[in-house]
């Protein structure tokens, strides 16, 4: 081995160990950087040569600075983030719905319904009593107010959910733009033969954060870029081209989510793609499900309860008689007790109490054989409505049972949302732990590497010093 080759070997080692120290230092300084993936210096022997029949090495070189990255795990993290985003948002929304139907802590619609029919039972004891009649009106108004309160709160949840889409679309568009920009820069670095490890980490972190909001599919391309698309095929990011979400309001202010694909073309309605049954993921999927499916289902049942209640009460009211007055000695009222729309839709928000005077309450069936307007038969018939089996959605049941089934459905949905959030969070935490075990920085390991590369660097320097001394000796002999 010539002295010059010895110096070349030492020089290659100095260069390789210095790069390894720099990479190790980069790992240490980014130990707490979100999304950072540990980098490893891959060292390989230099090209060997044969001199005088002997194979001699040419030192060491850095083959690559490798980022610890698992594409399969990244895909699982995207899916887990989407599921967790949906579950967390759904659970948060259901926590706002639950108190509206919780009669255990405070009196609610169920109690008001029972109190209303109990007041009729009390009126049957003294059918001509004005205080008892006033109690019926008071309980009826409380029942109407509870219908209005619950429906109004449900409408507010839909409205707030709808309005939150504005900020959501802006955040998603910003993330898509950043990912597309990184795609372009990464492609340029790769074309020059470089390694854009830090930019790849930034892009992966952006994709994971974005997947919390929107379920999507990612695919790594040979040129280093990342393609993102919806499960239904619409392209969100392709190279440095990006799609964009926008909102289009209808006459009622309800937003449709419009998507302009990264591949071009006009904006299309993507609401069903990202929030429809069976394919909704991410927080946006949960928001659209709450606005378009879950809350409307509760309101539909509330409307049915209000409409059926009014129909049953008005039927009995119209067949009875109130107290005689100067304008109507017979006591015939002819007035409906509750006012509701002709259709079931909107009944809970529109139901009103149509009777203002206690005399108009039809407690009697006008049976002169038992006292005419003084009897209590109609009041008893009215009180019996509470226990009457009525054909309704879900089967024949009483008004109380129908409301109980609605409360039960809300309870089941709340438990399901809470369970989904717990399970999805546990899954996501497990996957993040797996990622940290492979891509996370271990200070203990990096400190060991620092010592190892430092000693190797010192050894290479000593090798060069020795070679220099040998060269000086040879030159001295020549002189």
Description:
The protein is α+β, with helices and mostly antiparallel strands and 479 residues long. The protein has three domains: 3-68 and 443-478, no CATH class; 73-83 and 165-279, no CATH class; 104-156 and 294-400, no CATH class. The chain is 58% helix and 12% strand. It has eleven helices and 15 strands. It has helices at 3-29, 71-97, 109-125, 130-191, 197-213, 271-275, 282-318, 347-350, 377-383, 399-439, 443-478, and strands spanning 39-45, 49-51, 54-56, 60-67, 217-220, 226-229, 235-238, 241-242, 244-249, 255-260, 268-269, 338-339, 352-353, 390-392, 395-397. The strands form six sheets. It has a four-stranded antiparallel beta sheet. It has a three-stranded antiparallel beta sheet with strand order 9-10-11. A hairpin with a 5-residue loop joins β9 and β10. It is rod-shaped, with a radius of gyration of 38 Å. The relative contact order is 0.15. The model has no long low-confidence stretch (mean pLDDT 88).
Query: What is the overall shape?
Result: rod-shaped
Major sheet: arrangement of strands: 5-6-7-8
Q: Report the helical percentage.
A: 55-70%
Number of helical segments with 4 or more residues: 11
Write the H/E string, N to C.
HEEEEHHHHEEEEEEEHHEHEHEEHH
What is the number of strand segments?
A: 15
Q: Taking all residues together, what is the mean pLDDT?
A: 88
Proportion of strand residues: 5-15%
Q: How many structural domains are formed by the residues? A: 3
Q: Rg from C-alpha positions?
A: 38 Å
């Amino acid at each position: 081995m010539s002295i010059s080759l010895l110096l070349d070997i030492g020089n290659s080692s100095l260069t390789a160990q210095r790069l390894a120290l720099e990479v190790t230092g980069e790992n240490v300084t980014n130990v707490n950087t979100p999304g950072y993936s540990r980098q490893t210096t891959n060292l390989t022997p230099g090209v060997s040569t044969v001199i005088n029949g002997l194979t001699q090495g040419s030192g060491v070189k850095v083959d690559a600075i490798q980022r610890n990255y698992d594409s399969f795990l990244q895909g699982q993290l995207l899916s887990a983030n989407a599921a967790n985003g949906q579950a967390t948002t759904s659970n948060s929304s259901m926590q706002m719905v639950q108190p509206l139907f919780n009669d255990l802590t405070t009196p609610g619609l169920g109690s008001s319904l029972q109190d209303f029919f109990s007041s009729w039972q009390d009126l049957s004891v003294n059918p001509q009593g004005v205080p008892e009649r006033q109690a019926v009106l008071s309980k009826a108004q409380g029942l109407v107010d509870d219908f209005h309160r619950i429906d109004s709160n449900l409408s507010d949840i839909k409205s707030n959910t709808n309005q939150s889409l504005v900020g959501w679309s802006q955040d998603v568009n910003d993330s898509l733009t950043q990912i597309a920009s990184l795609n372009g820069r990464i492609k340029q670095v790769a074309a020059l033969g470089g390694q854009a490890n830090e930019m790849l980490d930034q892009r992966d972190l952006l994709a994971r954060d974005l997947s919390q909001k929107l379920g999507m599919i990612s695919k790594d391309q040979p040129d280093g870029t990342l393609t993102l698309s919806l499960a239904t095929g619409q392209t969100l990011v392709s190279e440095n081209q990006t799609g964009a979400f926008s909102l289009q309001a209808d006459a009622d202010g309800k937003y449709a989510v419009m998507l302009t694909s990264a591949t071009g073309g006009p904006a299309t309605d993507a609401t069903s793609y990202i929030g429809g049954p069976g394919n909704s993921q991410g927080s946006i999927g949960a928001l659209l499900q709450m606005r378009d499916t879950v809350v409307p289902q509760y309101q539909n049942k509330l409307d049915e309860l209000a409409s059926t209640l009014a129909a049953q009460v008005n039927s009995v009211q119209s067949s009875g008689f109130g107290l005689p007055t100067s304008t109507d000695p017979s006591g015939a009222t002819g007035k409906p007790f509750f006012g509701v729309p002709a259709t079931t839709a909107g009944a809970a928000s529109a139901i009103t109490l149509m009777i203002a005077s206690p005399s108009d309450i039809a407690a009697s069936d006008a049976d002169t054989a038992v006292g005419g307007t003084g009897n209590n038969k109609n009041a008893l018939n009215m009180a019996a409505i509470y226990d009457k089996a009525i054909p309704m959605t879900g089967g024949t049941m009483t008004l109380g049972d129908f409301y109980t089934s609605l409360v039960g459905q809300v309870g089941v949905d709340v438990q399901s949302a809470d369970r989904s959030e717990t399970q999805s969070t546990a899954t996501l935490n497990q996957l993040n732990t797996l990622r940290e075990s492979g891509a996370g920085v271990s200070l203990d390991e990096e400190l060991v590497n620092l010592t190892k590369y430092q000693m190797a660097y010192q050894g290479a320097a000593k090798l060069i010093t020795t070679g220099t001394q040998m060269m000086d000796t040879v030159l001295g002999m020549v002189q």
